[in-house]
Design brief:
alpha/beta; Rossmann fold; 2 domains; five-stranded parallel beta sheet; globular
Length: 200
């Protein structure tokens, strides 16, 4: 399979922006969240299993998954989150591996907010963490999602802690400063990844 970089970071760390910078350089990128949406799009055996586990009320009137309600339940209860992941992750992994197998050299990027928590870091060759302090994440999240502070803190707490994420990192991109030149930092990493991919 094509050499793959796992791109991750805490919520509101700037991971998506960094992903777009890699795409501007012509690097193929797959958003795991898009794959997660695809595997539950009806008709879907994955969606059927979710409805069996959590009840038909987790579906909207058109038969699609009520994602805000599912997210709310998962953030509030770790067992719900584990059960949901046990249903969805095998199908997500299969699609990710199919995608990787079709990508041209030298490398591609898998962007996944829960790369570490889900164990999907095992699917990639190298992990890049976009890092920002929790206080910075909180401030950005409040501005971005227009939510109250307790809700934002709950979202932050639901993700793996910063130390665990950094412990899995091969590379760390510090995005604590709004004025940081991310394009230059991404270009430097792009050249490194090209070299690593070519050297095998």
């Amino acid at each position: 399979m094509t050499f793959t970089i796992g791109l991750t970071g805490g919520i509101a760390s700037g991971k998506s922006h960094v992903g777009r910078l890699f795409q501007k350089l012509g690097v193929p990128l797959l958003e795991a969240d898009i794959v997660a949406r695809e595997v539950v799009a009806p008709p879907s055996p994955v969606l059927d299993r979710i409805a069996e586990r959590f009840g038909r009320e987790i579906l909207l009137a058109d038969g699609t998954l009520n994602r805000p309600k599912m997210r709310e339940l998962a953030f509030a209860d770790q067992q719900v989150l584990r059960d949901l992941e046990a249903i969805t992750h095998p199908a997500i992994r299969e699609r990710i591996n199919d995608w990787r197998a079709r990508q041209p050299p030298p490398y591609c990027v898998l962007s996944n907010a829960i790369l570490i928590e889900s164990g999907m870091y095992k699917l990639v060759d190298r992990v890049l963490v976009v890092d920002a302090p929790p206080a910075t994440q909180l401030r950005r999240l409040l501005l971005r999602d227009n939510i109250d502070e307790p809700a934002a803190k709950l979202m932050l707490a639901a993700q793996t802690d910063r130390a665990t994420r950094l412990a899995h990192a091969d590379d760390v991109l510090d995005n604590s400063d709004e004025n940081r030149d991310l394009e230059t930092a991404v270009l430097r990493l792009h050249r490194l990844y090209q070299q690593l991919a070519q050297s095998g």
